Amino acid sequence: MATSADQALSDEMLDAPYISAATPWSRFWSRHLDLAIWTLPAAIILEILLFYPLEMILPPIAVRILINLAIFPVAFVLDAICLARFGQTPARNIAGIRVTKRDGTPLTFSESVKRNFSLFYRGMALGLPLISLFTLISAFEKVKHGKQTSWDMKYNTMVVSEDGCIERTSIVAFLYIALIALLTWIKHQ
């Protein structure tokens, strides 16, 4: 078993004959599509729970900033709920990849939340512009060379391709771009 994030995945980790490590592109596009999917319900939840109560004590622009800062963490929790409940998320299902523990069992809600927040911190640099670009490139390069990300090492997980292929990854990328375009259009209407 690999002991650091820089070690390659061993054959024993991927011992099932039909399973191989997911590609960096399938991981990237499915993560971003899932986040795009979960941001809408996260925004609705935050509007209901925070906007009106906070509007009474803070200026509306401050409330908007707080809601925007909380969207990703709430989206990551919604992602973890889906992963724990169904063993899969919508985008990963389309991409043909799956997140599991090393022994192949599904992640619990707690494990999913911890992994997601580690990914948010270490892989996405809390969404901070430019810094997140470097952390995403670093993670991409590790996965591209068969190495593990720090969050997969920390939580003893792996992302495997069950049915993944370039066509499925392309569909996920297209859906992500289309959803972002739709959300941008809605925001400006």
Describe the SSE topology.
Blueprint: E1 20-21, H1 24-55, H2 60-86, H3 90-95, E2 97-101, H4 109-123, H5 131-144, H6 150-154, E3 157-161, H7 166-188
Antiparallel strand pairs: 1-3, 2-3
Helix pairs in contact: 1-2, 1-7, 2-4
Task: Note the total helix count.
Answer: 7
Number of strands: 3
Low-confidence stretches: 1-11
Strand content: 5-15%
Q: What are the defining features of this structure?
A:
mainly alpha, globular, 7 helices, 189 residues
Summarize the structure.
This protein has about 190 residues and is mainly alpha-helical.
How would you describe this structure to a colleague?
By secondary structure, the chain is mainly alpha-helical. It has one domain. Helices cover 65% and strands 6% of the residues. It is built from seven helices and three strands. Strands 1-3-2 form a three-stranded antiparallel β-sheet. The protein is globular, with a radius of gyration of 17 Å. The N and C termini lie far apart (52 Å).
